[in-house]
Amino acid sequence: MPEKKAWTAAREEGDALIISFPGEGHLDEADATDIHNEIMSEIDARDAKKVVIDFGNVNFISSAFLGTLVAVNRTMQARDGALVIASIRPEIYQLLQVTNLHRFFAFSDDIQSALESL
């Protein structure tokens, strides 16, 4: 059986969990469930209260992945935690604006400023 592709990379910095997407940067519908499960697994394994999702390598997200972001944000709110999206490209931010989802997330220009805002 082939090994399952890892979509995310996670590391801790201080008391924050940083999740990034080291691959090709194309997060589409076919992989949204796997990506969601990986992100939630990392958050749960570390009982994370502060999370930064680094979009630096991401150049496309599907509408299904928007659902993943909403679910992660809800999880963090339920834990009295915080989620910051870092390094998002203007065209992806524009998608969040069009769907009015930008109002529900905190954004930072880079990982360092995201960590400082937590």
Quick gist of this model?
The protein is an alpha/beta fold.
Put simply, the count of helices is 4
Radius of gyration over all CA atoms, rounded: 13 Å
At CATH level 2, the architecture is 2-Layer Sandwich
Into which percentage range does the β-strand content fall?
15-25%
* Biggest pleated-sheet summary: 5 strands, mixed
Q: Write the H/E string, N to C.
A: EEEHEEHEHEH
For the record, give the distance between the C-alpha atoms at the N and C termini, rounded to a whole number. Answer: 41 Å
- The total number of structural domains is 1
Top-tier CATH class: Alpha Beta
Poorly predicted tracts of residues: none
Structural class: alpha/beta
How are the strands of the biggest sheet laid out side by side?
1-2-4-6-7
The coarse overall form would be: globular
CATH superfamily: STAS domain
CATH fold-level name: Transcription Regulator spoIIAA
Give the total of beta strands: 7
Helix content: 25-40%
Arithmetic mean pLDDT: 91
What would you say this structure looks like, in words?
This protein is α/β, with parallel strands linked by helices. It has one domain (9-117): Transcription Regulator spoIIAA (2-Layer Sandwich). Helices cover 40% and strands 23% of the residues. The chain has 4 helices and 7 strands. It has helices at residues 32-46, 63-78, 90-98, 111-117; strands spanning 9-13, 16-20, 26-27, 50-54, 60-61, 82-86, 106-108. The strands form 2 sheets. A 5-stranded mixed beta sheet has the order 1-2-4-6-7. Strand 1 (9-13) and strand 2 (16-20) form a beta hairpin. The radius of gyration is 13 Å and the shape is globular. It starts with 8 loop residues before the first strand and ends with a helix. The mean pLDDT is 91.
